[in-house]
Write a structure and sequence with these properties.
The structure is a single chain. The protein is of the alpha/beta class. It is built from 12 helices and 19 strands. Helix content is 30%, strand content 20%. Strand 10, helix 4 and strand 11 form a beta-alpha-beta unit. The longest helix has 21 residues. The protein is elongated.
Amino acid sequence: MRLNQILACALSLLIFPVVSCSKTAELDSQLTVSPASVSFPAAGGTLAVGVTCNNDWNVNNSATWLQLDKTSGGNGSDSIHLTTKLNDTGAIRSAILSVDSKNGQSRRVSVSQASQIFPSYNTSPKAPDATGMSTAVQLAAKFKFGWNIGNTLEALGGETGWGNPQITESYVKSIKQLGFTAIRIPCSWNIHIDNKATAHIDQNWINRVKEVVGYCVNNDLYVLLNIHWDGGWLENNISQAKQDSVNAKQKALWEQIATSMRDFDEHLMFASANEPNADKAETMAILASYHQTFINAVRSTGGKNSYRVLVLQGPNTSMSLTPQLMGALPNDPIPNRLMVEVHNYNPSQFCFGKSDEVWGKMLYYWGSGHHSTIEPDRNATYGEEDAHLADFQKMKETFVDKGIPVLMGEYGAYRRDGSANLPKDMPTHEASVDYWITFVTKQALDHGVKPFWWDTGGAVDRLNNAVKDQRTIDAIFAGGK
């Protein structure tokens, strides 16, 4: 070899060092699989996974419930279409797909599918009908004072199980004549299931609830119909362990409720739950899934339900926690049709406490100018005007100012007028109750929050429709002046 050839060869080795075959193969290998995880709904369907490779590849699939339109491919970009059918096993099922390339690389894809525990009750969906259906903001502007028919349709022993008579249209008319423009109907459904295996609701109960809703709508009252405490199957089971089964029941019940009530106009609103026990981000995320299931179930039935206003409950329906934990609402395919619900019995020892507890004594006197010098140990020490004002302001800033109406679905403070635990300074106690009612009602309305008074028969007699507590009625309406 000539000298110049030797020098050229040496120079080339300096500039282009030798790379081992294994290193070359590693640099040249290419296998990309996306996404790395796929989640199917219980109903099944088809989803795609993309594969990009510079060599031949194949897929290993051991799941008999999962079908693939192809199990191999070659150089370039391709897609694998995964298909599942209805999962009615009662449990989530999962699988791992292994995509292996001849270039020595391998990728894994996690596949899961939720389970449908109960059959679908959305058997006759209608075409969406927006006729006469207002947005949430427009609808909220149409009512001002709300009333609860408490301890009745939500009673675990049936409508009269907690001592109240059956609801009559004359009673509903009497509530309207007092000046209320909306009625909240707390309602149980789970206890009226006639087939636990299928979560089927007794049709006689559905018909009765529909009749009561009709009393209200026919008298131009706006109605809020919910699934109330109902034995606690939802609100006491906000956990990962119960999430699948609760969502399954939420879907089954709301498909039945929504289908049966579908033809009512905008006067009827649906509420997902009552007072869900969530107090941190983790449980709020699970509660959000229950609300999402509710929205999906109602919307799927179509007709006016496609545009009906739906109401979502904050964590613990707390005015303090809700702005903290519920800033983002679940997805609704129809914009501007959601409201938020909170409750207000603050402070509870004043509003309804009936005995001294280790965590706090009963309180008889509340608010500026209404503390007692006769019985100072029963004066409120928290939950007074400043606390309410702060909570209402947070609700306004977080929701109302952003076009999301807020309902104070329950509120109340009640007089100690029994033979036991009577206040020693009764005139100041009575004035405190009046002041709480008027102050809270006024601040709610001033902050764009619509108040619904909680009544179980204490203010208006259910038998003769006569007012039993005129001071309470007067105090409510004084808050709207």
